[in-house]
Design brief:
It is a single chain. Helices cover 41% and strands 18% of the residues. It folds into 2 domains: 203 residues, Isopropylmalate Dehydrogenase; 147 residues, Isopropylmalate Dehydrogenase, CATH 3.40.718.10. Strands 2-1-3-12-11-4-5-10-8-9 form a 10-stranded mixed beta sheet, sandwiched between helices. By secondary structure, the chain is α/β, with parallel strands linked by helices. It binds 3-isopropylmalic acid and manganese (II) ion. The site of manganese (II) ion has 2 residues, from helix 9.
Amino acid sequence: MHYKITLLPGDGIGPETIASAMKILNFLAEKNNLTLDLESLPFGGISYEEHGTPVTDETIDTCKKSDVVFLGAVGGYKWDQLPRQHRPESALLKLRKELAVFNNIRPAKVYNSFLESSSLKKEVLRDTDFVVLRELTGGIYFGQPRGNDADKGWNTMVYHREEVERMAVQAFELARTRRNKVTSVDKANVLECSQLWRDTVLDVHKKYQDVQLEHMYVDNAAMQIVRAPRQFDVVVTGNMFGDILSDIAGMITGSLGMLPSASIGLKHALYEPVHGSAPDIAGKNVANPIAAIASVGMMFEHSFKIPQVAKVVEQSIEKALADGYRTQDINFDNQGKTVSTTEITEIILNNCKEIMQKVNAESGNFVTA
Ligand code: IPM
Ligand code: MN
């Protein structure tokens, strides 16, 4: 198979973490007979420096013509004072909207190696494994009217029935491949928009009676995620609530530096780590590339449709952690061995090689190499 991939390394630690992830991607692509046509373009602050805009129309066009877009991170102190439309974040929002990647998948899974060092108790965390599905191209992020003048600022939270329906379908379908439970998060006790959300999810559920559905208000959901995270399987919610809840859920994995994400639309797919550009540590070879590497795993699952390889990526990361290797951000209490970005990448790559060999020797039926 042949895939066209646009790389948008972006700002801060983006380029380093994407470079790491590309080592893993290139190796696994070759092993699985995928040919990748790669193009790297400036995006975010770096694009603003070069072109006076955080994303050019040509870049959006190239992304639309590719099968997969792989983004590092955007933003930095340097561009914080710019008007909103020039800020790197606005490029990200535009890209998501133009690619129509409405379903943002953010897994929250605990790594066993982190059980001891998390800010949450290990009894609470153990075996936590859920996924946040965040609606990504609607809601208050994009609703009109919006604006501000000297005395007021305003935004509009709006959802159309179709936007909620397609998210509900994604949630129920995903739940069927997992533990068969969906928690739909809203604020239906206060917001009309949430009432529409809830009614629509209920309607779609009529076709998915085998899946358990519950509704939860967003404030309660925030509390439940840290109180008893094992209760969740698939959480589905709107753009703004999903933004906030996925950061909370990120702490389940121990650090935002570990969290990958996939954003899937009908035609396009965008992969990006959940973390930001961390300009304070950029260029020092200390950034944690695990979120970017785990995003490669998601790419194999959702775009290349080889979920077994996604498992290999996951196991390779887990083994590196179990063997005590840590980038500085996750070396809590100095219990592990601190390694650099490039070192942990080599370690994970070697694990991939070993695990692939083992799988091949045992079954030989999913890799063609
Ligand atoms: C995220 C980020 C973005 C968002 C920002 C950078 C615009 O926080 O991907 O969660 O709010 O969606
Ligand atoms: Mn966020």
